[in-house]
Amino acid sequence: xxxxxILEQAKACLQARAHEHAVTVxxxxxxxxxxxxxxxxxxxxxxxxxxxYEESLAATQAALAVYPQEMRFHQNRAECYFDQxxxxxxxxxxxxxxxxxxxAIELKFLLHRITLLQNPPQSPLRHxxxxxxxxxxxxxxxxxxxxxxxxxxxxxxxxxQTIIDQLDWEIVIGxxxxxxxxxxxxxxxxxxxxxxxxxxxxxxxxxxxxxVKEAKHDVLAFFEEDDIWVDNFLEVTLSYxxxxxxxxxxxxEEFPDGKLHEYLDFxxxxxxxxxxxxxxxxxxxxxxxxxxxxxxxxRLNKTDCRxxxxxxxxxxxxxxxxxxxxxxxxLINTLSPPGSMLVSGGDQPLVRRLRHDSSVxxxxxxxxxxxxxxxxxxxxxxxxxxEILPY
Length: 391
Prior knowledge:
Layout: H1 3-15, H2 19-32, H3 37-49, H4 53-66, H5 71-83, H6 87-100, H7 105-118, E1 129-135, H8 150-159, E2 168-175, H9 183-186, E3 191-195, H10 204-214, E4 219-222, E5 228-229, H11 233-238, E6 246-249, E7 251-254, E8 260-264, E9 273-275, H12 276-282, H13 292-300, E10 307-311, H14 325-334, E11 341-344, E12 351-354, H15 360-366, H16 368-385
Parallel strand pairs: 1-2, 1-4, 2-3, 6-10, 7-12, 10-11
Antiparallel strand pairs: 4-9, 5-12, 6-9, 7-8
Helix pairs in contact: 1-2, 1-3, 2-3, 3-4, 3-5, 4-5, 5-6, 5-7, 6-7, 15-16
């Protein structure tokens, strides 16, 4: 049997969680090639997952003596200490590994987990004053009986939040100059309107900027009127504000009939909660962009604001097993500063995003002029932020 076949068998055992058998097969491979890095890796990981930490650490030290630059050995050493609850030792060896490779994905992810454990979520009611801001064109929904205004539906979403009765809250809607307010909306309590200047661009970033300027509280939650926060959205996201400055979450994108289109591991503004201090550091929305969120996140990543991203689903033992690993790897590599992290937000996303043709993204899909504007946006964004756009 070739060494390649032996290693494939060892990896298959590891994947099947047959840890003892994986060690046996890896040892057989090492009897043929004593310095085979893949066999060493299978052995030390299998020992760690079988909770034989001392043996795993000893084998890891031996492997590092041969391959001092090999990140998976540095990772296993850190994870051995992490699994035993020695977070400071784990952090020490993570930082040693990051000196060799500052972009080592697995080590950065483990550092995020340690930061979370050392900064657990707090009571969401520490921040009882919140301004919910949204842009609007005061359109009606064609998907609901009676064709209510989207704002009416969004208002009901806010009212259903689990902790809303314990908050001092307001909704501020950003509008184009001269927009007339229908009586049914003017009558809603805690709902206010902010108007752009007469010569201001008539677009989403302008509406958001005027809404935030009009908002009176120091915690800002961003909403899009045709989407839905699940009922505990504010309860969960507010629990991460302080020590974090910016919270975002993945989303379930669905059709008007409720059928799933896809899960989005990208938090658009309808999934953002932040402090006003964070907003001020970033500098608000750039009114040139259709893809305002990408530009905002690009500037956010250059500040010292601490971010947390609540992703859909439970993390597996191996980050590469995630349903959409590509996006999550990008997230880990672009989140900054080092105190920022990814956190499992539960089995289902906290935001349900509606996919329909009358939305901004729907217009980009169906309108030639808007599609061209979008392409120009992306060209400029790549010039500003590089090949991988901000997440």
